[in-house]
Amino acid sequence: MNIITEIKTQRLAIKLKSIAEKMVKRGHPWVFENSIVKQSLDGNPGDLAIIYEHKKNTILAIGLYDPYSPIRIKIIQFKKAAQINEEWFINRIEQAYSIRQPLLQTDTNSYRLLFGENDQMPGFIADVYETVLVIKLYSHIWFPYLNWIVPHLIEQSGSKTVVVRLSRSLQTVGELYGMEDGKVIYGNLGNEVVIFREHGVLFSANVIKGHKTGYFLDHRHNRKRVGQLSEGKSVLDVFSYAGGFSVHALAGGATDVTSLDISRQALKMAEHNASLNKHSGIHQIMVADAFEGLQKLIQEKKKFDIIVIDPPSFAKRESEIKKAKNSYARLTKLGVQLVKTNGLLILASCSSRVVAKEFFMICEEVISNTGRNFKVVDKTYHDIDHPVTFAEGAYLKCGYYQLH
């Protein structure tokens, strides 16, 4: 299957500074531009970068070369030499698929099949929504290998359609070889909105225009948990986006659910997703900035049995960490004021730069300072289809706090 015009690659011999060499030996998948001390040739996107140990001259790792990124080499093979050929990619895909097997035994037909660096495919995401496979590329390094990779992703997932999404940064530099964001590269897409199942609950994803690949699959286990806790309860879903938590709560028997988001368009999706499932609860939407919306609800003296606060990443760069921590603290303080006695405050973060320990410490300090007693019910991290194999790969954390 020819997805793309054939692109020739070359092999580059690379030597690194000793500190970078140590990182690679520990299994870190990134080599920065300023870590390279010796390089045999100028590299093109996707060239094989063979990293040799400084002293012994043995192969340390193999990566793909990215001239457009400060992360100059993305490592795909650690510790020993290997032929990076079609068979290598088949094995990678099979291993990734086998990790996801327990999830696929549930009433779920949407999952992340490849999770970038954590599946030794840096900058390559593959999400499945029913029979539609959405590939999101964050680097040019993958163009030379798509003819090998895509057919085996189709075979492994049983997908009938493949859509390619390209990151904004990828679209701004370099050759795209006829690829464009939202291009259907295999099969036919009858409707850009795809209906899929998540633990028996129906949702929709716009695979052409939606964020990332069309939906956020990573909170699936937390959404299911909220659904199980919601029977007979009132629920507030803050930063609700397309209503992930709201819809599970309604399907789980919540009496009334409020979805709060700044985007009216996102809330329309939330209403649509709720309509896909049978429920008897009242679903209200609130178009507002989260901080202002929470303040308004406090002034109205509203109270909820369950509140979920799941903001987007607040710290995309180092300089934003302090501000992000302040925002988490403010949201926690606002949320506490809206939780009924013995109610549940569920606080989440997807900022990898704010590590789990720090995030939970902020949440717990703020709750303590409000004077309310609380019990830590649970702390959760990544779902099974978002495995973590290096420190920066861990971003998702979620705390369940019962407030007295």
Short description:
Helix 2 runs parallel beside helix 4 and helix 10 (321-336) packs across helix 11. The model has no long low-confidence stretch (mean pLDDT 96).
Which properties best describe this structure?
404 residues, alpha/beta, seven-stranded mixed β-sheet, six-stranded mixed β-sheet, 11 helices, 28% helix
Secondary-structure map:
Blueprint: E1 11-16, H1 18-25, E2 30-32, E3 36-39, E4 48-52, E5 59-65, E6 71-78, H2 86-99, H3 101-104, E7 110-115, E8 124-129, E9 132-137, H4 146-157, E10 161-166, H5 168-172, E11 183-186, E12 193-198, E13 201-206, H6 220-229, E14 234-238, H7 244-251, E15 256-261, H8 264-275, E16 282-287, H9 290-299, E17 304-309, H10 321-336, E18 339-349, H11 356-369, E19 374-380, E20 397-403
Parallel strand pairs: 1-4, 9-10, 14-15, 14-17, 15-16, 17-18
Antiparallel strand pairs: 1-3, 2-6, 4-5, 5-6, 7-8, 8-9, 10-11, 12-13, 18-20, 19-20
Helix content: 25-40%
Uncertain stretches of 5 or more adjacent residues = none
> Would you tell me the overall average pLDDT?
96
User: How many beta strands in the DSSP annotation?
Assistant: 20
What is the SS-derived class?
Answer: alpha/beta
The proportion of strand residues reads: 25-35%
What features would you describe in this structure?
The chain has helices at residues 18-25, 86-99, 101-104, 146-157, 168-172, 220-229, 244-251, 264-275, 290-299, 321-336, 356-369, and strands at 11-16, 30-32, 36-39, 48-52, 59-65, 71-78, 110-115, 124-129, 132-137, 161-166, 183-186, 193-198, 201-206, 234-238, 256-261, 282-287, 304-309, 339-349, 374-380, 397-403. Helix 6 (220-229) packs parallel to helix 7 (244-251) and helix 10 (321-336) packs across helix 11. The strands form four sheets. A seven-stranded mixed beta sheet has the order 16-15-14-17-18-20-19, with helices on both faces. The protein has a six-stranded mixed beta sheet with strand order 2-6-5-4-1-3. The termini are far apart. With 404 residues, the chain is α/β, with parallel strands linked by helices.
